[in-house]
């Protein structure tokens, strides 16, 4: 088995074997673009490395030696030579891009001898030692795991000693001294000398890259981004001949997008730095110049860059994200990959590329990340309510959307505070890959340094979090946990600020936000998706308002209307509790009638909002004790009433106390050990049939009302928590009685479908029986997942699911993305049984998975009729449904 | 479709269509035994009756008319005739015998005219009116649902009026008067006159019998006895020409068994009464005479009875329970059915009938009710400890076994007290079918009247509850809730007494009991069963003692050893809690080592008790919070420590308080919303790997110890609560590490199998994956049932499962008998997946279902290798396993 491929040999289409970066380098080489020579170690080697307990396969180093020889030939330089040394960079690259998550080492091959060669060849002693210094620092950090601050302290001390302000003010002698000190640090850590043999350096570097694949950062990133073993099983390693952007002013390095990733407009977009190495741009250490300035400063290179961009786009039919270096006027490409953009950018480029004839509509849809589209439905600042708020600062608008929260200056504190439910704005000078966990927990990110391609900007955009970078007006003092704005105001940790990632502005206090309208581009995409998809998309909506919003976003009906939410209004909960507490059936009946009228009114409004569509109404689901105070709280209330000093109205307080005691007794009576698996759903309907009767009657009454107004609507009644046909039939009899009563009363046929949730495992297992009575099924995959795993979501999701994912025991959180192996097998079984019994059975899903793109692909594949998702997930669901259909088509094509 | 069959027409083998009683009557008629003419209305008519909303099918009454005509021909009597009237009894009879659970009406056809005919024909006016009076009373009770006490009051008043002591002292005139008053009671209830038309009477009676099928008594009986719709879907109705045992001293009625149901010995056993109707014997109103006395009193009839008994036994190859009536010297058979016996009787008759050559071993095994065998393992009084206890009374030993409990004289109070966990002895003059619910809740039953075939005796024997009847020395006063014994002692309600159903003796106070030894008959049966069965039978045993007991009962290994129970000893729980509370891993390690040594010692003893067999050890299963006090209790403890007045040792109490607070904090941290689906089983093993490591090590150490002693044993380690292969593999790695460590230490190969519980739905669904690593599966059907139904056993079993069963929404409690439709389908799926992956996979069951005969049949059918049950269920499991194999064989024979 071949372990390495030179860039000429590698198949640029095989990202799985070569990793994204390696495949890109091979493909560019094949296109005869100016790529430095080099080779890729395959991802299979990484997999082997882990399988064999972190050992490199036999023969690998020999193969690498021969690859190095080829590089020597092509570059004319020699490995380890003190005259004209071949130096390399060692870069990770998995099948799925994980920017910044794994490690890179530059200038590898330098030692006390080769540094002389580099100095001689470049004629620049300072450059050579600066490179050596950087190499030792990076190698120490990556290979020996040494904390960067140890190196930084040496650097700072030296600058202070010689009165230098910037790194660039350090002379060659200082750099020699620093390099020696760096090597001593490494030696102390390692227990032996800093490795001087380039091949030993390379082997250690390769191991370090492989190790970084299972580093905490990378594991967290894959987990959060749902990158599973089947799509990326390890990282490749790319060994590339070094080219230098920091050899003088005819040198530069830059990162550009072939189109603007913020809005998708067609312009080369990005930053470059003269006389710098690439990491300076990426890390945001120095703020880069806008790339269009290059046209003046380095016109030849700019022309070469522009034509390269066009060539790459035409080849990949996808905007690219490119890294280049100019060494003494010579242009080199170091990387190309599909550009990550925000949702607006993706949509614009999809539409543009179709207009340009570059791609067709299917490809335009397929390239979108459905999940990302939620960004477009993100909040913006309410302009009417921003006026009173003081503007504290302004930076570069790096990721759109607005957010308010407490300013927190520490990564760990931000993570913890966010996790415990606070809205947090992470405020830092710059961010690093190890800070990513805090991004997930923050509402927004604000940095004082860096540009649009800095780490903070790229990561925040990927996540759809509001982000402002390069906000130079802020002086952050970590020690005192505060920062001073340009005009001298102070932001202390915990002060609430608002950032607008679309304008780059930072405000004091919390500014209300508004939901955005759907743009015409987005509408166009949704129209295309609508044509392409097979699955229906309905909404989970419980109020007339959310029903209207769902329609606006393209929902074709309501797949889940949770009737219990209607009882939670402040005007109703009291009524409902009184019904639970009713002493006799007479009293209960009266209260139920009152509740029925309210519910009927809700139904009328929801039906109107959904006219022409199906509306699935789920009868009461939660256990009754959810509506009562918990026994501990109520006991405390009783105690406080008992202790209350007489206030002149003893009668009133006596009554109050008696009532409180009755509620306490009832709450205690209803308490359950495992409420998830207790007296809920249809079980409550069976014990208290009057509740379901009231709800069913309200649906029919509402339907009759709309009939009178000539509004077409198709209500469906759905029974929750069903585990057997006997339960379903029991309720069906009540349903039939009410229907007859209503049809008689209104002298009209009233058509309401009758169906069941499939959320109890046994329901899925006995679907053939249920389909005798049920006209439709709707998978309640939240509960089905709980039952299948015996996972109580409340108990496990925060507790051991993260632990399981960190330990590799779960690839995905099964509550976010459907578990195909277990729950999926159950659903497949259920589909077969149900459809065999009733061919016209309508089947949908209304668990949260209904809005998850990966789960939607599953639903498409299993032949469901529709998915139902919360309103703000509807556009995502529509696009994901289209992508599923397109995938299917292309598979058919392949056959 | 034919709705009725005369006894000549009916197929005596078709119990399903004709009901047990009807089939018996037809079969006896075919055997030319003296059965009065009559016919059976099929059980299908009953099913129709309910399907059509309680209406009788068209044409039924016409068919009945023609059957009545045939009866007129055979008897020479006329329907509704005032000269020689044909009277009938109307009796229920389902496919499965439900003694006393449904209604019977005698003397139907009587009215003011036919009563004259009966008087004339019998020459006995008093007899005629007594029959009429009885008919009106029974009809009023059964058809119109009138409370018996209304009639009783009239009867009592009349007796007082004329100074009569017994019913038999009432003269004809009094009976006329009583009959009229009874009719008035009926008229008031019905709102119109008492029906005089015999055909109308018959129709009403048939409806009443059908209605009684869904009466509460019958429903409860079916539920408790697990009689499901597939085996008995309705009752038949038998209309039989009346014969009278109460027309004079040449008349009699009796109930006998062809063998003694108490011990199985070969003798006609039972009671008869001269000049009485059958119900007098059954209800225990009058205490019958032992049947052997008949040999002297009515020698001809006795001979006829004896030869009939032999004929029936030879025909049915099963001891029979017979009802007969002698009318003016003529012998009639009114019923035959298989005799219900206690377990000892069944075993003895099985062995005897094989010796007699009447049946083969398979049939001898198949006829046993496996469930019933537990009786034989029931307690008897410890003779050494009975001496000091006063004997209060002595009655007829009606159902063996001994029990102590509070005497309760009221059926309802007994039910409630028993349900709330008290040991109760129900003490009554006699019992009625409506009292059966109290039987279930009582430890034993004691009546002052009735014989061995009285209601109390029959029902108690069926349930295996100790019972004494006919304890004439007791005078019960319901009003004051006490009774006086023959020697003048008083038993007040709530006094503790002990009854010995094997000797008939009643003692004051609570006498310790001892477990019985297995008799040689029982041993023989178990040997036969052992030969016949295919399934292995193992024990759920957690201590050396229960392991030894299980071996004695025939267990072939341990299927489930719950290691957590070993931590619950008073000397260990403290250690375990300290381990949970340990501040650091060092402290935890020390405590685990200590626990490990204790556990190792337990394993050594259990392995020794099971030498030569497999012992399956399940690692820690419950969540850790189960070992801590619950937060509320602990909070109370903290409060009380806080409030404790200083007692001179402030330091000690400070430390105590601090400790209590720490425990409270930990208990709060560990608390879960749904502990059933939370952090337990393998999930605890993953979070605290040192616990599992300790347990695995203890197993290997114990094995090594036994190797040194040359004791063969085959330990297996089983992981609970597994939901995925990743979890199982994670623990397998720990297992392998420990094995290597132990094999090195002991310089020996140590073989321990590694397997998994299948108790999480997802485990069953992904059995193919699990079987990659698991060498065996064991179904934990308790949890699997919970997960499949989303039933939390603690919450639903007492709350709505009874409601569901009463409403017909559940046929069986799925925690007692496996749910074949749902859980069964899952198990079938799992078997297929698991065995496909690993053909030699060993599969068993260790949930409570492993001791349930019905579930054992299922396990046999699904191809499991073994069942595992608690020690006292082992004999039941062995017999049930044999029966399953025999059933299989006979099915093969049929094919």
Task: Tell me roughly what share of residues is in helical segments of chain A.
Answer: 40-55%
Structural class of chain A: alpha/beta
Number of DSSP helical runs of chain A: 35
What is the 3D form of chain A?
elongated
Q: Note the gap between the termini of chain A.
A: 29 Å
Oligomer: homodimer
What does this structure look like?
The structure is a homodimer of 895-residue chains. Chain A has 895 residues and is of the alpha/beta class. Helices cover 47% and strands 17% of the residues of chain A. Chain A contains 35 helices and 33 strands. In chain A, the strands form 7 sheets. Chain A has an 8-stranded mixed sheet. In chain A, strands 26-27-28-29-30-31-32-33 form an 8-stranded parallel barrel, surrounded by 6 helices. In chain A, helix 21 (573-581) packs antiparallel against helix 22, helix 26 (689-708) crosses helix 27 (725-746) and helix 27 runs parallel beside helix 29. Chain A is elongated. The two termini of chain A are 29 Å apart. The relative contact order of chain A is 0.06.
Short note summarizing the structure:
Two copies of one chain form a homodimer. By secondary structure, the first copy, chain A, is an alpha/beta fold.
Question: What's the topology here?
Answer:
Two copies of one chain form a homodimer.
Chain A: E1 4-6, H1 15-30, E2 38-41, H2 43-51, H3 60-75, E3 78-79, E4 85-86, E5 88-94, E6 104-108, H4 114-122, H5 125-144, H6 148-162, H7 172-190, H8 198-213, H9 216-224, E7 235-241, E8 252-257, E9 269-274, H10 278-282, E10 289-290, H11 294-297, H12 299-316, E11 320-327, E12 330-338, H13 343-355, H14 361-366, E13 380-381, H15 383-386, E14 391-394, E15 396-399, E16 402-408, H16 411-419, E17 424-428, H17 436-441, E18 444-447, H18 455-463, E19 467-469, E20 475-477, E21 482-484, E22 490-492, E23 496-500, E24 505-508, E25 513-514, H19 520-532, E26 536-540, H20 544-552, E27 558-562, H21 573-581, H22 585-609, E28 614-618, H23 631-643, H24 650-670, H25 682-687, H26 689-708, E29 714-719, H27 725-746, E30 753-758, H28 761-765, H29 767-773, E31 776-779, H30 781-789, H31 793-796, H32 800-806, H33 820-837, E32 842-845, H34 853-861, E33 866-869, H35 874-894
Parallel strand pairs in A: 3-4, 16-17, 17-18, 18-19, 26-27, 26-33, 27-28, 28-29, 29-30, 30-31, 31-32, 32-33
Antiparallel strand pairs in A: 1-2, 2-7, 5-6, 5-7, 8-9, 8-11, 9-10, 11-12, 13-25, 14-24, 15-19, 16-23, 20-21, 21-22, 23-24
Helix pairs in contact in A: 4-5, 5-7, 6-7, 13-19, 19-35, 20-22, 21-22, 22-26, 23-24, 26-27, 27-29, 29-33, 34-35
């Amino acid at each position: 088995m071949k372990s390495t491929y030179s860039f000429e040999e590698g198949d640029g289409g095989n990202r799985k074997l070569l990793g994204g970066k390696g495949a890109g380098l091979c493909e560019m080489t094949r296109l005869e673009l100016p790529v430095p020579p080099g080779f890729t170690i395959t991802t299979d080697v990484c997999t082997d490395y882990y399988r064999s307990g972190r050992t490199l396969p036999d023969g690998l180093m020999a193969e690498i030696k021969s690859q190095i020889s080829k590089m020597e030939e092509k570059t004319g330089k020699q490995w380890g030579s003190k005259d004209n040394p071949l130096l390399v960079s060692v870069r990770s690259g998995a099948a799925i891009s994980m920017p910044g998550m794994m490690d890179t080492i530059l200038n590898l091959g330098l030692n006390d001898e080769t540094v002389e060669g580099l100095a001689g060849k470049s004629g620049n002693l300072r450059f050579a030692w600066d490179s050596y210094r950087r190499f030792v620092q990076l190698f120490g950090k990556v290979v020996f795991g040494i904390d960067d601050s140890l190196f930084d302290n040496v650097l700072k001390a030296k600058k202070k000693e010689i009165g230098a302000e910037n790194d660039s003010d350090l002379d060659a002698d200082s750099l020699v001294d620093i390099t020696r000190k760096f090597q001593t640090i490494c030696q102390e850590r390692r227990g032996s000398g800093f490795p001087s043999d380039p091949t030993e350096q390379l082997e250690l570097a390769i191991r370090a890259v492989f190790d970084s694949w299972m580093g905490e950062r990378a594991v967290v990133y894959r987990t959060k981004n749902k990158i599973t073993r089947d799509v990326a099983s390890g990282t490749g390693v790319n060994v590339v001949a070094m080219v230098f952007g920091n050899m003088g002013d005819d040198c530069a390095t830059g990162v550009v997008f072939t189109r603007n990733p913020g809005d998708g407009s067609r312009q080369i977009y990005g930053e470059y730095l003269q006389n710098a190495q690439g990491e300076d741009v990426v890390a945001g250490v120095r703020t880069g110049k806008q790339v269009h300035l290059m046209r003046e400063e380095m016109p030849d290179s700019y022309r070469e860059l522009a034509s390269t961009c066009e060539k790459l786009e035409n080849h990949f039919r996808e905007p690219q994200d490119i890294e280049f270096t100019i060494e003494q006027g010579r242009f080199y490409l170091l990387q190309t990959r599909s550009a990550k953009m925000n949702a607006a950018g993706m949509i614009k480029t999809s539409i543009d590329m179709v207009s340009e004839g570059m791609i067709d509509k299917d490809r335009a849809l397929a390239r979108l990340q459905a999940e990302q589209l939620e960004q477009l439905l993100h909040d913006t600042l309410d302009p009417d309510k921003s006026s009173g708020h003081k503007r504290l600062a302004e930076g570069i608008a790096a990721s759109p959307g607005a957010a308010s929260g407490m300013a927190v200056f520490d990564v760990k504190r931000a993570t913890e505070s966010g996790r415990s439910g606070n809205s947090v704005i992470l405020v830092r000078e710059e961010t690093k890959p190890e800070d990513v966990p805090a991004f997930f927990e923050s509402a927004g990110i604000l940095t004082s340094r860096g540009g649009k391609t800095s780490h903070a900007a790229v990561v925040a955009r990927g996540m759809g979090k509001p982000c402002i970078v390069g906000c130079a007006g802020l002086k952050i003092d970590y020690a005192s946990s505060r920062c001073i704005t340009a005009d001298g105001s102070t932001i202390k940790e915990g002060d609430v600020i608002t950032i607008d990632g679309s304008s780059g502005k930072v405000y004091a206090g919390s500014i209300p936000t508004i939901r955005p309208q759907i743009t015409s581009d987005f509408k166009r995409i949704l129209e295309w998706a609508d044509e392409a998809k097979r699955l229906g998309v309905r909404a989970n909506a419980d109020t007339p308002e959310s029903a209207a919003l769902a329609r606006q976003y393209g929902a074709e009906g309501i797949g889940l209307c949770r009737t219990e939410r209607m009882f939670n209004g402040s005007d109703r909960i009291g009524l409902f509790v009184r019904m639970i507490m009713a002493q006799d059936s007479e009293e209960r009946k009266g209260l139920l009638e009152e509740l029925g009228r309210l519910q009927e009114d809700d139904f009328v409004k929801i039906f109107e909002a959904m006219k022409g569509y199906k509306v699935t109404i789920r009868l009461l689901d939660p256990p009754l004790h959810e509506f009562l105070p918990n026994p501990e709280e109520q006991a405390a209330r009783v105690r406080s009433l008992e202790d209350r000093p007489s206030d002149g109205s003893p009668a009133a307080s006596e009554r109050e106390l008696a009532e409180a005691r009755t509620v306490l007794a009832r709450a205690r009576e209803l308490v359950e050990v495992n409420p998830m698996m207790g007296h809920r759903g249809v079980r409550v309907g069976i014990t208290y049939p009057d509740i379901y009767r009231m709800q069913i009657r309200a649906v029919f009454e509402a339907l009759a009302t709309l009939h009178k107004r000539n509004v077409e609507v198709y209500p469906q009644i759905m029974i929750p928590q069903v585990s057997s046909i006997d339960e379903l039939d029991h309720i069906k009899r009540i349903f039939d009685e009410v229907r007859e009563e209503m049809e008689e009363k209104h002298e009209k046929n009233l058509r309401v479908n009758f169906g069941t949730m499939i959320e109890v495992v046994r329901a899925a297992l006995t679907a053939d029986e249920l389909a005798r009575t049920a006209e439709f099924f709707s998978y309640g995959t939240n509960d089905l997942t709980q039952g299948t795993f015996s996972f109580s979501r409340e108990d496990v999701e925060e507790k051991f699911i993260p632990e399981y994912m960190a330990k590799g025991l779960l690839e995905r959180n099964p509550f976010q993305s459907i578990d195909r192996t277990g729950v999926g097998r159950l659903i497949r079984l259920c589909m077969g049984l149900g459809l065999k019994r009733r061919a016209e059975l309508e089947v949908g899903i209304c668990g949260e998975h209904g809005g998850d793109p990966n789960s939607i692909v599953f639903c498409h594949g299993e032949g469901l009729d529709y998915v139902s998702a919360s309103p703000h997930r509807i556009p995502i669901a529509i696009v994901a449904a289209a992508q599923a259909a397109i995938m299917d088509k292309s598979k058919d094509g392949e056959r």
